[in-house]
Amino acid sequence: MGKGGASIPDEEWERFLRESEAGAQGAPEEPSARARMVARRLQEETGRPEPWRAHQPARRRRGKGWYAVGLLVALALVVVALDPGRVADWFGGGGGSGESAQAATESDRPDQPPPTEAAVLLPTVEQPFRGSPAARWGDGTAGIGLPEARATGWMSKAQVAQALDRTRDFLAASGLDAGVLRGERPRAAIALINPHQRDVQDYLATAFSAPSRENDPLLLFSRFDSTKVRLVGDVVKTRGRVTYEEGDRGAVEVTSDVTYVYPVVRAAAGSDEVVRTIVRREIVMSWDDPAKVVIEPGTFSLVSYKVDTTNGGCDTVTGYLTPEFGAERAAAPPGDGPEVDPYDRSKSMDARMREAGDAGCGRATRS
């Protein structure tokens, strides 16, 4: 269990389940991600509601747009020539007189994107986050802000604290686990999902063996094909936060909005061209009252997801993130979708999805 909150043992959850079932008025209901998504969207929108399975992610961005042009590049090169150490410090290079200060953990949505850095500082095997805002982000779960626990819905303060810890455990097991990133099945993450939620279990049953646009494991999990690429080092940079509120039937509804930055090289020995894949996911999960919903103790029901990926593959469904390197980017046709700054967290995921719409492959302004 992650740090940062009080924990109660599984035995307490099981005891609570037995007592709740004994005193429940009628049988608990089996959760439906479809019903939950419809209810949420009916409250927030006037249009036709969509189930969570039909809420498709934005089209994958090719990750072009690394290099500034014209006067901006000329000026940046002059500055680097005059004082390269200072520029490296400004932009997270770590090769100058000192390391860049780590950014404070995100507690609220920022009101603007991170400063745009000159792309003259390319990533290296030694400094894979150089030239990126992620150089100042937290390592792993350290970059994910958790709120203070308080009694909410059917849960006590201690139970909410454990639900937040388990939410963070799911984020680590689905987006940070070394084995999962190498393409292994995310068993620890799947174990935290309510096994009685049939539509989600159907998705999980086919996503890894027969991935498709509807049943794509990348909707919830980050995976690379280890025969083609490998991660640089053992650090994944993250920035994001977790929030919660009372949901349907007194459940504690937890929302995570996290951006992950993965530096990779080709799998071949001696490869040293570093590129970055950036994934932003918003996942809404419901920690349900077992007296009202059929659920196993310590698991959550999936409400909805949204995912946006930069340099992870465009219009490809392989079940793996498929980053492009320099030669591939140069040969690829330009994206016909909108330009996107993958580090901009000032816009909500809803706004990001609306901007992307049904457009084709977009162009990232930086990576």
What does this entry look like structurally?
By secondary structure, this protein is an alpha+beta fold. It has one domain. Helices cover 26% and strands 16% of the residues. It has helices at 10-23, 33-44, 70-82, 84-90, 157-175, 178-181, 187-190, 198-207, 326-331, 349-356, and strands at 138-139, 144-145, 229-231, 237-246, 252-266, 275-287, 301-310, 339-340, 363-364. Strands 1, 2, 3, 4, 5, 6 and 7 form a seven-stranded mixed sheet that branches. A two-stranded parallel ribbon has the order 8-9. Helix 3 (70-82) packs across helix 4 (84-90). Mean pLDDT is 79; it is low at 1-8, 20-24 and 34-99.
Strand content: 15-25%
Structural class: alpha+beta
Most strands sheet:
7 strands, mixed
Q: Note the overall shape.
A: globular
Seen as an oligomer or otherwise, the chain set is single chain
What order do the SSEs take from the amino end to the carboxyl end, as H and E?
HHHHEEHHHHEEEEEHEHE
What is the number of helical segments per DSSP (H or I, 4+ residues)? Answer: 10
- Report the strand count: 9
Q: Give the low-confidence spans.
A: 1-8, 20-24, 34-99
Indicate the mean pLDDT: 79
Strand and helix map with partners:
Elements: H1 10-23, H2 33-44, H3 70-82, H4 84-90, E1 138-139, E2 144-145, H5 157-175, H6 178-181, H7 187-190, H8 198-207, E3 229-231, E4 237-246, E5 252-266, E6 275-287, E7 301-310, H9 326-331, E8 339-340, H10 349-356, E9 363-364
Parallel strand pairs: 2-4, 8-9
Antiparallel strand pairs: 1-4, 3-5, 4-5, 5-6, 6-7
Helix pairs in contact: 3-4
